[in-house]
Amino acid sequence: MEILFAIAIGVLSGSGVWLLLRPRTFQVIVGLALLSYAVNLFIFGMGRLVTGRAPIVGAHPVDPASLADPVPQALVLTAIVIGFATTALLLVVLLAARGLTGTDHVDGRESP
Amino acid sequence: MEHSPSLALIVLLPFLGSLCAAFLPANARNAESWLAGGIALACTVLTLGLYGRVASGAVLHFVLPWLPQAGLAFSLRLDGFAWLFTLLVSLMGTLVVIYARYYLSPQDPVPRFFAFLLAFMGSMLGIVLSGNLIQLVVFWELTSFSSFMLIAYWYHRAQARQGARMALTVTATGGFCLLAGVIMLGTIAGSFDLDRVLAAGDTVRAHPWYPVMLGLILLGALTKSAQFPFHFWLPHAMAAPTPVSAYLHSATLVKAGVFLLTRLWPVLAGTDLWFALVCGAGLASLLLGAAAALFQRDMKGVLAYSTVSHLGLITLLLGMNSPLALVAAVFHIMNHATFKATLFMAAGIVDHEAGTRDLRRLNGLARAMPITATIATVAAAAMAGVPLLNGFLSKEMFFAEAIFAGEEPLLRVGLPALATLAGVFSVAYSLRLVHQVFFGAPARALPRIPHEPTRWMLLPGVLLVLTCLLVGILPARTIGPALALAVQSILGFATPAYSLVVWHGFTVPFLMSVIALVGGVGLYLLRYFYGQRATGQAPLRAPFDGRRVFDILIVVLHRFAERMVRFASSRRQQPQLLLIVCLALAVAAIPLAASGLSGGGVPLTPIDPVYVLPWLVGCICAVGAAVQAKFHRLAALIMLGGAGLFTSLTFAWFSAPDLALTQVAVEVVTLVLLLLGLRWLPRRLELDDPDRRTRRARARRVRDFLLALVVGGGLAALSFAMLTRAPVRDIAHFFIGRALPEGGGRNVVNVILVDFRGFDTLGEITVVAIVALTVYVLLRRFRPAPESIEVPRAQREAPAQERGRAFDPEAKLPAGDLMVPAVLIRLLLPMAGLVAIYLLLRGHNAPGGGFVGGLVMATAFITQYMVGGAMWVEWRMRVHPQYWVALGLLAAGGAGVLAWALGQPFLTSFGTDLALPVVGDVHVASVLLFDLGVYLVVVGATSLMLVALAHQSFRSQREA
Q1: Are B747 and A50 a contacting pair at CB < 8 A?
Q2: CB of B759 less than 8 A from some CB of A
Q3: Is residue B20 one of the residues assigned to a domain?
Q4: Given this model, what pLDDT does residue B572 score?
């Protein structure tokens, strides 16, 4: 599974970086979204891949090693929500820039 | 150590006054003057009140601990020398305020003037009273800044702006050097406390850092005191209003440099290096300033150069390494302040009443303004060193010291000769100033008819001239005790015997004074009769022109900075992003190149064939989105959603149900958000894009593709290496072990979010709230691109009966195709609300929580918009999203503050188990309130953003 997980991160981040370097604002937004998937998965991967052991403790004391690592999960959870907020902000800034400059090029004018 | 709170009052009062002065009305000249004058007077009185204690030999302190761990404190210290200087600053401040009240015209905005004047006074007092070297530098910089604002007071004049900029650049650069020097000094002495530094003189002088440290400190002091070769800023600072020149550029600010040299004299002086540097700068300034003053056309120009010259004299005295010279220096600091301020005030009066300060136009004003002429003449005589005036006494002390400065023949003959020459110049320019302005035939064609100003404007000058006379005739009775006190506080037991009397007999210094007087008069007559070649420039100017060097340096610096900016950065986004990506790649690659990528050690988990299918879909979606994002935005968007769903599924697969839930919910709102944005983007067809086929574009694509490949491959390799290494799980064990006993929840992720790391979460929801408000505000001023304004094609091509129908707010359901979905969606709203609340409530013990709950609720709201229509929903919306956000922040913050009520730190959780009928056991905790806050913020912020964006679609139709 690790190899699949790693390749997925690679594909997501590669597509994200490609789009990040494109000239159109919409491409950059999509690229950022893809990149944030990759980064979130990467951070999540810090806890290693375990199946069927969500970090939810029962009534009786359990062996902590038997559960998935909750710390990266908590970090990623807020990152997802903040990521949405910043995507919204970026979108609106880009729309406003488009209204002001008349182009959707990231530089505010068509490249020479 | 004797404490005195009034020290703090002396420093604080001017700053408080400055704050008050800034907020008075623009034309409140009298109120401002009363305020400023009252504060200056209060400082004077407070200082005078401390005389008794200082005279008894005590050093007063006021210490306010700030960072005791780092040895930092706000520390004030008053000894005899500081006392004398404090008195000078506050007393002169009082007189200048009186003068300024009548000098400024009713059109001048007085609040700015007095606010900065008071701020300057406070900073200057701060320098004088600082008991800590770093603190002294802070006040030092504050004086540079307030001086900048005061020079640029009439900022509509280019000269004022230029002069202010030059003064700030020179003195602030010096201040920067001073800071470095002071840090070195403090490090050598082992403390920044002035008392301890002053006691560490021998250590400091013997230290290998001494030359560098001395150089840096001297750079600070010499730039501030306008000493050669940094003297050029002072004449340009004369663009300031005259009260400022009288106060800052004769009596106080420029004295800060020599004050510092005197203050640190016991520590730094006594070496050959000190002698060479300080005497060299002093002597050069003394002679050059005096010579340049002879050739000025502007009255204030003469005074500025003579100030450079007199400060040079003081610096020279300080450099001589002799206690007697130090006495002369301190004495001359005081004398110079009195006569020079008077002369500035007189120059201001002449400017005010005659309309010009040009020496070539002015003549014979004594008849029209006899009192001004008298005070100016007496003050100029003091400056020239005429007997029975204070300037004579300190100058004679200087001559006496010049004779005994050194044993080498060059110094024995050269220094007295140069000192006498400077005296000759000084007499000549003093004579020229007074004779040309006030005597001779009355000038004609002046801009105004000259007359005596009001009595109040003359009063400060008269008082100062009386001081000159009193000190000059009865030195021992007037300045004697204070001078003795000041000198003793610097020198301690090394204080030499000196005599303050007018007549010492026919000595060599007296002879030198006589030569200076006769020579000066002779020089002036010579110049007077052999042509009036006042060019405004000294003939010796060219090789010493600091100003040109300054200008060239500034231009070179600008060019360098511009080139650097152009080289290292770009205004365009694409190269910047490219740079960031490359930099990130380098940051990751460089340590890896050193250590290599080592994984392994942990057995791989077997590949589950069921996971392969979504994995494949996710990867294809990601690549597809990347390919399609330019020309097929909707397709790209759908594939982005696919990649998101795959991410969500991965979270769920690998034991992260909370993440999976949140990711799915976020996926929905992100998709809606981007869909709403699509409408405002320009149409783009693959066919009409010619620049795709240019060679450059192709090369760029190849480059970016390779970069993407490297980043993707690298990150994949990194991930794989990381995943196959043994994990570090100490933190995980900490949280898992304590979630239930200390956090009261079973869902460890949620407990971390709302309890252990609650402060983080509070910060994060605040960010979300701010972003939502920013989006809202940005969209209020939204101007869509022209071609996006018209109604979209889909709406245009809709059946005619639908298009023509006006919006009916009373309609229960939208008509047309959407009627059935509208019914369903509306029925769904309470269900969605229920699910959201359920997720919120169970979050502490099972997957769920405020974030997911909020997103679900927001999705339910936004579906109403999509199906019912924005107008229909807005017509019915009773609760505004802004209130949700505000309530949420209040709830989350309130949950934190509640802990205070129980005497616990902010955001400490507390709770209890309740046994309710029907419902069963319920755990009620403050974290639930916190999570409710999260929920409300997420609902409010998400709907606010989406609704604001959705709202644009009918705004533009209205506008079109």
Answers
A1: no
A2: no
A3: yes
A4: 81
Residues 6+ apart with CB under 8 A from B461: B99, B342, B345, B346, B349, B372, B375, B379
Q: Is B308 within 8 Å of B443 (Cβ atoms)?
A: no
Determine if the pTM surpasses 0.80: no
Chain position carrying tokens 């809202």? B776
Reported as a pLDDT band with limits 50, 70 and 90, residue B314 is: very high
Helix runs in B320-454, H state only: 323-354, 370-384, 390-403, 409-438
Beta carbons of B605 and A2 less than 8 Å apart = yes
Query: Nearest CA of chain B to the CA of A106: how many Å?
Result: 6
Whether residue B693 lies inside any domain: the answer is: no
Q: CA gyration radius for chain B?
A: 39
- Give B322's contacts (C-beta < 8 A, 6+ positions apart): B401, B404, B405
- Among A21, A26, A111, beta carbon nearest to B577: A21
Residue B804 has pLDDT above 50, yes or no: no
pLDDT of residue B545: 64
The one-letter amino acid at B388: L
Per-range mean pLDDT, top range of B217-231, B667-681, B913-927: B217-231
Which of B84, B109, B131 lies at the terminal end of a domain, its last residue? B131
Return the structure tokens found at B272. 């050959």
Interface pTM, i.e. ipTM = 0.95
Q: Is residue B718 predicted with pLDDT exceeding 70?
A: yes
CB of B635 less than 8 A from some CB of A: no
Tell which of A22, A81, A82, A91 to mutate to test the B interface (max B CBs under 10 Å): A81
Q: Where are the alpha helices (DSSP H) in B190-268?
A: 194-198, 201-206, 210-224, 233-236, 242-246, 255-263, 265-268
Q: Write down how long chain A is.
A: 112
Q: Is 90 exceeded by the pLDDT of residue A39?
A: yes
Mutate which: A92, A100, A101, vs B, most B CBs within 10 A: A92
Residues of the domain holding B830: 752-790+816-960
- The model's pLDDT over B903-948, given as tens digits with 9 standing for 90+, comes to 878 877 777 777 777 766 666 778 888 999 999 999 999 988 888 8
Final residue of a domain: which of B131, B157, B185? B131
Determine, yes or no, domain membership for B443: no
- A109 shares contact with chain B (CB less than 8 Å): no
Residue A97 contacts B where some CB pair is shorter than 8 Å: no
Number of domains in chain B: 2
Least confident range of B353-362, B453-462, B619-628 = B353-362
Question: Is the distance from CB of B160 to CB of B154 less than 8 angstroms?
Answer: yes
pLDDT score at B46: 94
Query: How confident is residue B806, by pLDDT bands cut at 50, 70 and 90?
Result: low
Return mean pLDDT, chain B: 86
Nearby residues of B525 by Cβ (< 8 Å), 6 or more positions away: none
Question: Is cis: bond before B229, omega within 30 of 0?
Answer: yes
Mutate to test the interface with A, among B771, B844, B927, B939 (most CBs of A within 10 A): B771
User: Does B271 map to a domain?
Assistant: no
Residue B147 to chain A, least CA–CA distance (Å): 41
**Cβ contacts (< 8 Å) between B784 and chain A: which residues?**
95, 99
pLDDT in tens, B418-429: 999 999 999 999
